[in-house]
Amino acid sequence: MHSIDTTSAPRIAVDAMGGDFGPSVVVPAAVDAAREGIAIALVGDEERVNAELAKCDADGLDIQVVHASQVVEMDDKPADALRRKKDSSIQVACRMVKQGEAHGVVSAGNSGATVACGMFTIGRIRGVQRPALAGILPTEKNPVVLIDVGANVDSKPQHLFQFGLMADVLARYVLGVKDPSVGILSIGEEEGKGNATVRDAFDLLKASQLRFIGNVEGRDIFTGEVDIVVCDGFVGNVALKLSEGLATSLGRILKEELKSSWISKLGTLLSIRAFKRFKKVTDYAEYGGAPLLGLKDIVIVTHGKSNELAVTNCIRMAATSYRNNATAHLAEGLAAHKGLTNKDTKSAA
Hints:
There is one protein chain. It is built from 13 helices and 11 strands. It has helices spanning about 25-35, 45-55, 80-85, 90-100, 110-120, 155-175, 195-205, 235-260, 260-270, 270-280, 310-325, 325-335, 340; strands spanning about 10-15, 40-45, 65, 105, 130-135, 145, 180-185, 210-215, 230, 290-295, 300. It holds the Pfam family FA_synthesis.
């Protein structure tokens, strides 16, 4: 982990070629972030990036363009991308962070390749067994952190325990939650429910300094009664995609219902402000992306279909993580729970 002067302006390396829309969305999003005092390194095809920059009012902003000759496509396998595309925009961005030329990476590109580059180029914090992706989801109250949402599909109890520790740091130092509550996703609220891995992880979380509230069920994720929900990456990714699909389908159903009669259309007009507020609360773009927690520096992965707002919010999140020295706080949290992290459990045998 680099010793960084957090009083200086954060410089974020942005994968300009990532996502379904590439520079046409990423570049103007980065310009918006630069207007807020965040230094930007746009990494990608220099000609294409500069062409998009020319369309923006970027005069006087701290934006550099770093050329990368290759692009990791969305269907590339992570291992192949690491071996064969060493000059890809995501690899160059991660190397900039590794070399101390930037403080964090943001990418809307191939998530598997981004995770792999983060792990093998930037590296893990000492003591972290498995880095994890933390999804930030809307609820009836404040956002909830769901961890892991896909970096690990076969986790041990110690991994789940560390996910809770890492998410606690994210909630405190990035999302501003004063005393976050932590639950573990299971098939029942009672202690002793769930498979062996969940039960053993329950014991580790219960013995920690975290504000652990016990088991939570899938229906509890969106109530806002818990700040952090810990789960295996396979389960978390299914839960994330299910919630995204459900929200999209409900939106379409509601839209069709509101157009079904003149009374419904009138009601829509009268409730337009409420619908706008609802859309803002449930829009994934408001929460940016998923931080990859457990690395020596900041890496944030966002959806391939991300719009400008989502990418800008990812850059803001990366800058906030840097300013609040989140990685150092994570290392401190891991050190404070070293005994529990290394504790043997039945499931880990």
